Amino acid sequence: MKIVVVGSDKIYAIENFFVKYLKNMGAEVTHFPAQAFFWDYYQASLFNKLIFRAGVSNILHKINKQLKDKIDQVKPDIVWIFKGMELFPETIQWIKGHGIKLVNYNPDNPFLFTGTGSGNKNITNAIKYFDLHFTYSKEIEAELGSKLGIRTAYLPFGYDVSEELVTHCHAQQEVIKCCFLGNPDSQRAEFIQALAEAGLEMDLYGNGWKHFVSHKRITIFDAVHDRQFWETLYRYRVQLNIMRIHNLQSHNMRSFEIPGIGGIQLAPDTPEHRLFFTAGEEIFLYKDVDDCRKKAERLLLMSKEDAQQIRQKALQRSVNSGYCYRSRAASALKEMSNLLHG
Fold this sequence. Notes:
about 15% strand, about 350 residues, alpha/beta, 15 helices, globular, 6-stranded parallel sheet, Rossmann fold
C-alpha cells in the first residue's frame, strides 16, 4: 500500500508516529509536511505574516501545487491528510478525481474552531470529499457518521515510549507536587488560578504562561520536549489534565501519555476517560475545581508505596490495552486496507 501522509513533520506532530509505524508495517509512506511548510513561511518574517493576513500571499497555492506534483510522482493508493487547513477543497477534489482514496484525521474538532490554528473554511468545505474520517472522539464520530452519513473510524490518541526511556524516567527522584504540562488558554488559566487560590501549589510547563496566571503558589517553567518531556511527566506525584473546549467530553493526548510513562493522572471526569481507565485505581477524575483540589491533596499525602502501585497499574493498563501508537497505527492500517479492498 502506498500512502502519502500530509500534515507536519515538527517534533510535536502526531503524524510522525503513524509515519514511523506504518513504514515498519510494510506500507510505502511518503511524508509531505504541508503544515510545516506553511508555518516556516509564516514565522519567517513580519512581512510574510502581513501579506498572508491581507490575502495577497501565494504560499498556499505553492503548497497545493507541490502536493499535486508529489502525488503525480508517487501515485499513492491513499492520501491521508492530518487536519488540512493548508489544502484547498479544489485540491482535495483533484486527488479524488485521480481515483485515490482520501482519509482525514483531525486532532482538533472539525466543527468547532477555537483559534487560528484549530481550523478554517478549507476544513469545513472539504469534509464531504473524504472517503474515511478518523476521529479521536466518540462525540465527533457520531456527528460525522449519524448526522452527515460519512464513513468514520474511531482512532484515539496514544503514547510512544521505549523500555529504555521508561526505565530512565522511573529512576528519578519523585517531586511531591502537582504539575501541569501544556500550553495556556483562558479556560485553563482560570482553572489553574482557582486551584492556586484554593491552596494548591503547582508547577506549570509551557509557552507563555506568565501572560495568563500569576500567583505565589504557581511556578512557571519553559516548555519541555523529547526526554525532558517524559521525565517531567513522570517526576511529579500528580499530573493535572485539563481539557480544551473542543474535547470536553472525550480525551486528549495527555490522557495516554501520562499513564503510558507511569504517571499519576488527575483528569476531568469524561465518558472516554472512564472507558479507557478504571477510576480511582489507574486514573483519578474530578468534576470541578474543588473536587480537583481535594483529590490532588489526597494524592500528595499518599505514601510512596501506594503511589507506586497506582503508577504501576496505570502503566500496565496502557501496555495491556494497546494504547501505544504502534497499536493505533495497526488499527489505522487495517481500516485503510478495508477502504481499499472492502
